[in-house]
């Protein structure tokens, strides 16, 4: 199992299935979910019709748990900016559009949106050189940087 996959599985386990769409076993119809979506948004965006019968309820529940729950460790703007970076990473244009709009609606500035996508670009570039084969070296070096206290970014000087 790759380090990335192991990290995702570990994060899902630590979060108690919080982000696991597949862990939900009940398969209610999309109609009941459409009613919930309409209650939340005031309308049912037509793209929700793209999800297959029986799949939408679990996806909507995961979305509510991650993006709509205000009682989580991350605020809504941060969640949307992370979602934007992920959308850029998976090259999902509709996802990029909706995450950008949602980030803006939750207070993100144009500069913050640009920075979120820049984070993806940097990580993508680095991933070509920091591969599974280099993990032990990177881990050792990172642990040294943690010990030295040099991973913390200096506060802004505005």
Question: Which terms would index this structure?
Answer:
61% helix; elongated; mainly alpha; single chain; 7 helices; disordered N terminus; 158 residues
Strand content: under 5%
Say which CATH homologous superfamily is assigned. Answer: AhpD-like
- Which sheet architecture does the biggest sheet show? none
Q: How do the helices and strands follow one another from N- to C-terminus?
A: HHHHHHH
Provide an overview of this structure.
The protein is mainly α. The protein has one domain (19-148): AhpD-like (Up-down Bundle). 61% of the residues lie in helices and 0% in strands.
Please give the structural blueprint:
Elements: H1 3-14, H2 30-41, H3 56-68, H4 76-89, H5 93-105, H6 110-127, H7 135-148
Tell me briefly what this model is:
The protein is built from seven helices and no strands.
